[in-house]
Amino acid sequence: MVNETKYDVVVVGTGVVGCLIAEQALDAGLSVLMLEAGPRVDRQTIVENFRNLPPSLRHHWDAPFPPPPWAPVLETRTPGEENAYLDLTGPNATAYQQGYVRYAGGATWHWAGICWRMTPDDMKLKSLYGVGRDWAFDYETLEPYYARAEYALGVCGPTDAALQWPPKTPRSRPYPMGPLPLGPGEQRFTDVMAPLGLQNLPAPQARNSGVSYDGRPACCGNNNCFPVCPIAAKYDAATALPRIEAKGGKLLTNAVAYRIEADDRHKIQAVHYYDPHRTSHRVTGRAFVIACNGIETPKLLLLSKDDRHPNGIANSSDQVGRNMMDQPKLKATVEMSEPLWTGVGPVQGSSILNTSQGDFRSEYAGAMFRMENMARGSIGAAEALKKGLYGRALDQEIRRLSACTGLLVVEHEPLPSSINRLTLSDKKDWLGLNRPRIYYDVGDYVRRSAEQYTIPTLKKMAAALGATKFDLNPEFLHSDHIMGGCIMGKDPSDSVVDVDCRSHDHENLFLPGGAAMTTGGSGNSTITMAALALKAADAIVAQFKTA
């Protein structure tokens, strides 16, 4: 039983949000316990897992992270697996087949490392465009935390202000490192898009550009950012865990939190967890941080219902699990008559974001466009084999498809909607815990954008590239940017947390990260999650100083 010591801060989850808060609390002299549902593994194990995958699984980014029975996640490697954990319903259920990892280090093990900030307008949708919600604070309040997060993660980015995002928005600090160069495919894409008024910007990325940073080596452009960076040039939270332990933090792995305990004054007293033997343990603390992503966090809160909290912990507003968001994605494969050559450098290195801003947002969603920079060798081989070729003809076709095909992607801005809701399924997992059930509809705001804006734009892009084939997948897909289930707001009646990601209902409970995000924007969510984590960490430390 790990209940002999009362920790100052108990953190559930060891991803980027949990690690940033844990380290700041330790630096302030607080004692910290971290709970992780899954195992702790070394990088080489994951690399070897990937190397030993059959070709059919090479592009299933979660495949090198097999989940233990007590910490299941959604898997889609074989027919039927998509229903093995997440219980998905609604008109766009496929668009919420989220991929995440319940390992020490969390989903940053297999993220792309992209760190787009939200814009000032992204945070004022309601007041500017009459849709969605406004954030509880403005961009200027979050900007210093963005800067701190960029230094904490080690973000490289453009030094030229004209190439930075958001545009014409002062930065309190430059990026810690300069940008990585674009590969030949991305550079050609940039050049071709410019006459269309589409500015393809070099992406800020949490990977080291030509120098070591924070003990991690420089990126060598192996184009394997997901499922795993084999040399740790890209930030992942697992690299922070040894430093947290060196500062005195304690880490418990294979510890599945299933209940948050509150006293009769609504103060959180303890977290209960199961070990792999299905034995229950109780840990106590003075402050609690639930940082186990936008699905597992609201699930845990709902699992924790009791007589005093019949709707679950932190849920007097009935908003826990509502407003589930992602950035619905569309993909189009293009084939060209001349080589494009993607695959040099990181898997993603640039994006078009000026398509995410404008007065049209009162009618339909803004969006981010990019051309994926993944090497196309294995994809080209799979397509060539479908043609029944062999020998020299097969080899030539693999070479041609590897050089002359590309993938265009658009990710749409979502709106928070109460109907997009996580509840507890009647179906149980290996531990006997209710699985998450999620209803998801991308909404007319996104559908209008696809019909009127983004699909026509994809076709214009393909034509400008000289594409001889254009194959659009019409189904909305997931981007793995899980947001909204513990939405932030000033009004406790229609939100779950306040401006510091503190629960309105429980003064010593913090729910930072993607679940707290009020709107999603069009860019990747991780750097905003990290900024919210640092803001919450400041509030936690300040709360202890005044206690």
From TrEMBL:
Cofactor: FAD
Signal peptide range in chain numbering: none
InterPro entries per the UniProt record, alphabetical: FAD/NAD-bd_sf, GMC_OxRdtase_N, GMC_OxRtase_C, P2Ox-like
Assigned keywords, A-Z: FAD, Flavoprotein, Oxidoreductase
Domain called Glucose-methanol-choline oxidoreductase N-terminal: residue spans: 225-328
Gene3D superfamilies: FAD/NAD(P)-binding domain
UniProt cross-references to SUPFAM superfamilies, sorted A to Z: FAD/NAD(P)-binding domain
Stretches assigned to the Glucose-methanol-choline oxidoreductase C-terminal domain: 416-533
Superkingdom, taxonomy of origin: Bacteria
Keyword Ribonucleoprotein: no
Family note: Belongs to the GMC oxidoreductase family.
UniProt-recorded name of the protein: GMC family oxidoreductase
Source organism of this protein record: Gluconobacter potus
Classification lineage: Bacteria, Pseudomonadati, Pseudomonadota, Alphaproteobacteria, Acetobacterales
